[in-house]
Amino acid sequence: MTGRPQAPAPPAAGLGRVTAFLSLERNTSAVVGAMFVMALGENLWRRFIPKYLEALGAPVVAIGAYGSTEDLLDGLYQYPGGWVGDRHGRRRALLLCVSLAAVGYAILAAAPAWPVVLVGLVFVMCWTSMASPTLFAVVGDALPRERRAVGFSVQAILRRLPILVAPTLGGVLIATQGVRTGVRSGLLVSIALAGVTVLVVRRMRLDRAPPAATGIADVWRSLPTPLRRLLLSDVFIRTCDGMVDVFLVLYAVNIVGIGAPAFGLLIGVQTATVIVCSLPAARLADRVGRKPFVVATFIAFTCFPLAIVAADSFAGLALAFVVGGLREIGEPARKALILEFVRPELRARGVGLYYLVRSLAIAPAATVGGVLWQSAPGLPFLIAGGIGLVGTVLFALTVEERHAG
Asked: Tell me, what's the pLDDT at 22?
């Protein structure tokens, strides 16, 4: 019979509106899927690595050196990761990074002594750091300027959803199996999930022509002055973070006196804060501008270590970790701002160089924090807060968003 009304749109139409609202398409969906799966495995054990090192006989200075090595590798891997992403394509770069990270998980799980953990870290950081410029570049390739902060926000949320439960489960594994066996069980899960991630990344279809040969000095010269000022401010902020991050679990468990499962709950509190605030802030940043939200996130970075050292109970720590979650309120805006300053044809390498410089500059922070800890456990947290304040003021006074491309 002709002339009948058309049937309602299929559910896929509604799904399409949701994916558009969240700035998701084939490639960005593959990226957030990969980030979700890898985060699910890593957060079973990553926050407990300082305790794992302690159980393997590492002194506190060595634990600080672990944090500095992490920051150093984070820097050294960024530009090579961007070069691979630009030169050989986003999909191949991510597949390489996932595979190398899985090797690192295996080394950490088999480590008979704490120095071997540093060897495993060399491989583990291939996902955390070498993949980062490519993950950035996919957002820039796939999304227009007015949707990029939301794109980064969705990445942040889906990467952190596992943190709502994984650190607590990791803490339970440690409480029931001991530190060594509990961490190793989490690492075995990470190896299996890395295999799943390979299948997710293979869904990407984003072909790019090989770029013209450009040296690292040329890439540096291409970075505009406002981006260099943002970088300088970011160095202060990440020094604030790096000085204390590796000692959070030690301060909470050894000084305040909570258990490993309770520390996992604190990570969940922090993550829930990120999930609640990230997407609304990103949508506002896309509409009204990035700078106010970046200032807000820098303020939260400054206040977090001060809130930790002021806490003397689980409730106090929970409040501090809410502040820690608010550090992400302007992170999607900051990342979108970086993309707007970087030339499109140098996207992955420009982002990689930014993070290379930042991470190399902050690499000593955790080691300095370890030395300060030996004088007084609260001292690195207090000094970190002062350093963060310098970075916040510097950004507020020197970086103008209107210079973004």
From this structure: 46
